[in-house]
Amino acid sequence: HFGFSFFVCLSFQGVWLGFNIFLFLYTFLLYNTDHSYFYTRVILGCRQAMRRQLDKNITFHRMVAYLTVVLTAVHIVAHLFNIERYHESQSMDAEELLKKLSCLGENSNETYLNPIRTYDTSTTKEVFMSISGATGVIITVGLVLMLTSSTQFIRRSFHELFWFTHHLFVVFFIGLVFHGAGQIVRGQTVESLSNHNVSYCKDHLSEWGHFSNCPSPEFAGSSPSTWKWVIGPLFLHLCERIIRFYRFLQAVIITKVVTHPSNVLELQMTKQGFKMEPGQYIFLQCPNISQLEWHPFTLTSAPEDDHFSVHVRVVGDWTGALQKTCVTEGEGGKMSTALPRIAVDGPFGSPSSDVFRYGVSVCIAAGIGVTPFASVLKSIWYQFNDDRLQTKLQKVYFFWICRDTSAFEWFADLLHSLEVLMVERGKSQLLSYHIFLTRWDETQASHIALHHSEKRDVITGLQQKTFYGRPNWDTEFKRIADNHPGSRIGVFFCGPKSLSKVLHKMCNSYSSADPRDKIVRQAGNVRNGFVCEVGPGPGGLTRSILNAGAAQLLVVEKDTRFLPGLQLLAEAAPEKVKIVHGDILTYKMERAFPKQLAKEWDDGPPDVHIIGNLPFSVSTPLIIRWLENIANRDGPFVYGRTQLTLTFQKEVAEVCS
Amino acid sequence: MGQIEWAMWANEQALATGLILLTGGIVGVAGQFKDWQFAAYGIAAGVFICLLEYPRGKRKNKGTSIERMGQRYLTICVKAFGPLTRNYFVRAGLHAVLSIPGGFMLPTVLGCVCVAIASLIYLLAAIRGEQWEPIMPQVESKQRPGESMKEPPSNPPPRLPAELRRKRQEDAAYVNPIPISVNSV
Hints:
The complex is a heterodimer of chains A (657) and B (185).
Chain A: H1 2-33, H2 38-44, H3 46-55, H4 57-89, H5 96-103, H6 123-129, H7 131-148, H8 152-157, H9 159-166, H10 169-179, E1 186-188, H11 190-195, H12 198-201, E2 219-221, H13 226-249, E3 252-260, E4 264-271, E5 281-285, E6 295-298, E7 308-313, H14 317-326, E8 343-348, E9 360-366, H15 371-385, E10 395-402, H16 409-425, E11 431-437, H17 442-450, E12 467-468, H18 473-483, E13 489-494, H19 497-509, H20 515-522, E14 530-534, H21 540-547, E15 552-557, H22 563-572, E16 577-581, E17 608-613, H23 619-632, E18 643-647, H24 650-656
Helix pairs in contact in A: 6-7, 7-10, 15-16, 20-21
Chain B: H1 6-30, H2 36-53, H3 72-79, H4 83-86, H5 88-99, H6 106-127, H7 162-165
């Protein structure tokens, strides 16, 4: 009976699960491929969003790992208490019911409940003698070893240790599947429950076994169920490993090996059926060096090349060994049979493939992070060689921040040929590149200073001069945002995390489409400055000024109807807003702000701004009045060259000019 | 694999184990298990191991040593024990001894096994000749100006004697209203 019900249960679960999967897949495929949803897909950009989630696989893996560790701890603590209670129930001092339950199973036709059969044992011994306990200890030890070798410090500094120890996951999963085979957690069988009424019998221990209403209860262990959860993901992982093995068997021919300065090795390879997009990466394995190590490298060639290449920087054991096996010592070329066998897995996606989907793209690379953009730029080169292709991409800004000059060399050739091509095609505006050198010594500095006025840059040989120091991202982003108002600009970055955060903030702060924020941005650096707003009205521009971080805001409003709204705004920004109910033409501005802000006329502008969307009737007399003030250096100009940012009617502006 | 400093991993392992022993000990004491005295030992041993292993040693080979947050004070304490903490054979032995009482009670068994493993890794590190070096704060060397900037001159430039330097009256382009002497300001 038990077996049959088990199968019914299982098949029902299977049917329900299968039906759900079928429904999901059917609907997904329908939305993905059916023509009636074509435009829906275009608007939602479905394909990219799904793929984007798969890029975050390592983050997901780490989250799951943390969760596993926490839940393992909880599980172990809970079972520690359980085993102790089981053991206690066997002692002479235990409660009546517990003793009775623990005694069950002494006779041959009885099933037992308490897995610990006697008090004369230790819990430790019991645990190690049971399948569940032994597997539990083994897999927990494995988990602890995996955990301690996966800390960031060990991963970064001793990667092989991390990689090899992590393969203990095989032990972990095998043990996990068998962990429940001992069936230690036991429950009363369905059949026994129908005979033995628990709520009555638990208080009438003496009647057990003797009267018909309390026959001895029967127990059976709960069947292991972990395998149902893990079998799906393990199957997927197995598939991935099989695919990698299949790719390992495919032949990869190294066509060329180039050594570049600063320990960079370029490998050019071909493989049948290899298709890539710009900016993707592959895993390389060299059986001569190590059978088990696969290392990721970004592809630096374009899809239009007849080969694919990677640039490898020699930093550790594996890359050092790669250099030794690939590079010939002495004269003469190595025969192609002498080059080692290489296996390639991939290519795998990365965000930089999206560069071509924007009208304007900004590519920022730090150090060796230039590799995906090398691929992108090469692809651009090919696409512009071929006149027939129409690309959406109209403008590319490329920033490269580098520590030594020697890193430029292998990339400078590419930039140079791009430069030449752009000029030939008359599209020199397409690519605007800026190279920043952040570290130099004295000899270099003097050499640079000496050749400063030459036409070509002394370091890179390119027409565009190298900049020194780090870029001022505020200025760069402002320039780009102002050059392309209202368009979607894609910003791509490859480099260290700290810079990534800075750029993220920049993107956010320059992404406002609100024209009022743009006006305030036009005023320059309003943060912690003193601002006088002329004619705030309902307060739209006022809010933008406050959001930009002004320290003190003085608003001069003549119309009484707007004052309550402005007062609410002043309450929301306490100590910051002062409201003057008056006429700007008669207001004495020289008393508005503290005297300390004043600066000399020849020094830079003071931290005082006048911003305003000028009221219609007042714009002309106000401008005339201010021009007089400038000449006399009074009024708002007692503070120095107070900055004015004003908007007014087009006709007024035309009259002014 | 040749460049691995096993002591770094042993340190991570031992620190994790300290926490495991501590947790096991707390479970044993809080649940008033049989033989809970071993659990109390587990708490003490766990805390001791955590304090001993918290300061990370300096890396022998190239590479930056990364400190754990706030390890400065513990580094000073651990350093004070001199060769006892510097030598990894001693640490291996110490961990091996500490692990034994954990084996007598179920909640601390896991801690016992993990400490034993940490002890083995330390043994391996000690055999390969590694040592615990404290990470001490770098003393900032004073900013030296570049090579081309020498000391400012300490002597005035060589001049002709005062009599020859004084302008001759007939050659002067103008006449000073106030007579000028060598040291007048």
